[in-house]
Specification:
By secondary structure, the protein is of the alpha/beta class. The protein is 45% helix and 13% strand. Bound molecules: S-adenosylmethionine. The site of S-adenosylmethionine has 18 residues, from helix 9. Keywords: Membrane, Transmembrane, Transmembrane helix.
Length: 404
């Protein structure tokens, strides 16, 4: 190579193009302690990077997130260690004497133990959805540790003895009402529970559960499959370990909670539809037997902490109305926490929601007393009962009928 060739290369964009990814790699390495292969690939593909092809709640993204749980949690812990290491000498000594480094070591151990659950969920998903074996992790989008943790907390809310008090408060008004239906009639009831989360309420009612997010359904599948769950309380999760706030003791922070207190299985009376509730069809009047999704209309639609997760609550209420048979009943219990993810089309007060329901064609039960009475139910949502704080919802319970 001649001197002028060399001078050309040094002065040209070619060198810059080669050095740029290396510089980013170097800077990235300084700030993020470890890279996965897919992240490295991502960095080196600068400019030609594929974009995420799957939705936030898709099977692919949920699977990728469960599969990456251990690595992401480990990364978080590295940041905590790094932060501790920046303490001055005197404060580091205090930290040492109160056992803070040991607490971080304990978090490492607990994270490894916790990882067995998401790893198991990811493995089962691979078996149940073989298409995942060929998924491109870049196209699945970045793994979402927060959503994995939120779903894991639902094991406690829905399927642990620890969560029984939280559940009882919100399930009781709904189950008491359904128990009030004549025994002969009860067996034939068609009940839809949209946005069922990990499905406990639908299981208690023994009917059709519907859920859009694969973060939830992959966890539910982990309970439903005899390959991963066979007996009550066979799994242990330390669901609060990663959040050091509001804890009285480290014992409480790292405590394990066993689940499931009951082992659910799908059956002709407990079915799961993994799709957008808005796409569920009103049933045709003469369909019989197995395919209950498409029967002539549900006798009940039960929404628990659901309607406010919609970006278009008016369409959601209209769709509940469409799915019910004439004379069918909508039971709702939940808050009005208009979703933070994106701008909702409307953000209504309770008064407005009820007025809108009437506009759509519902008759709200206005009894002052009894099982149907509209009332406020104070309750929690995946609360830690030992924590130094409580988030109390004043959720609203109402019963509305579609006119005959
Ligand atoms: C706040 S969570 C409540 C879960 C459960 N009902 C409970 O109380 O534990 C709302 C759930 O609704 C689901 N969801 C939201 N929009 C949905 C839709 N269009 N179709 C089906 N599920 C949906 C979410 O994925 C989420 O799991």
């Amino acid at each position: 190579m001649s001197f002028s060739d060399l001078r050309f290369i040094i002065a040209s964009d070619v060198l810059l193009a080669c050095l740029f990814p290396l510089a980013i790699l170097f800077l990235g390495y300084k700030h993020v302690p470890s890279f996965s292969f897919s992240e490295l690939k991502d960095l080196l593909l600068l400019g030609r990077r594929k974009t995420r092809q799957y939705g936030h709640f898709s099977l692919e993204r949920a699977h990728e997130s469960y599969a990456q749980y251990a690595r992401l949690a480990e990364q978080e812990l590295s940041l905590m260690r790094k932060s501790y290491s920046t303490l001055g000498r005197a404060n580091k000594n205090i930290g040492y004497r109160i056992g803070y480094p040991r607490k971080l070591d304990r978090l490492k151990d607990v994270t490894d133990l916790n990882a067995t659950i998401p790893d198991g969920i990811a493995e089962l998903a691979l078996e149940e959805f073989p298409s995942l074996k060929t998924k491109d992790p870049v196209a699945a989008g970045s793994a979402d540790l927060g959503r994995v943790r939120e779903s894991l907390k639902h094991f406690v809310r829905d399927w642990s003895e620890e969560g029984a008090a939280e559940r009882t408060r919100i399930f009781a008004p709904i189950l008491d009402l359904l128990r009030g239906v004549e025994a002969q009639e009860r067996g034939g009831l068609r009940v839809l529970v949209p946005g069922c989360g990990l499905g406990r309420l639908a299981w208690e009612i023994s009917q059709l559960a519907n859920e859009l997010s694969f973060f939830m359904t992959l966890s539910l599948r982990f309970l439903l499959s005899p390959k991963t769950t066979t007996v009550p309380n066979e799994h242990i999760l330390r669901p609060y370990a990663h959040w050091f706030s509001h804890q009285r003791t480290n014992g409480s922070l790292f405590r394990g909670i066993s689940f499931p207190d009951d082992v659910p299985r799908l059956s002709s009376t407990f079915r799961l539809v993994e799709e957008d509730f808005m796409k569920l069809k009103p049933s045709s009047s003469n369909a019989q037997g197995e395919d209950r999704t498409y029967l002539s209309g549900y006798d009940y639609v039960v929404t628990l902490f659901f309607i406010d997760t919609s970006l278009d609550v008016l369409s959601t209420i209209s769709h509940i109305h469409t799915l019910l048979r004439p004379g069918g009943t909508w039971i709702n219990l939940g808050p009005l926490l208009w979703t933070g993810g994106a701008q909702a089309k409307v953000e209504l007060s309770l008064e407005e929601v009820l007025q809108a329901a009437e506009e759509i064609g519902f008759v709200i039960d206005r009894s002052k007393e009894g099982l149907m009475a509209q009332r406020t139910v104070e309750c929690e949502y995946t609360g830690d009962r030992n924590a130094m704080m409580r988030w109390i919802y004043k959720a609203e319970f109402w019963v509305a009928r579609k006119s005959k």
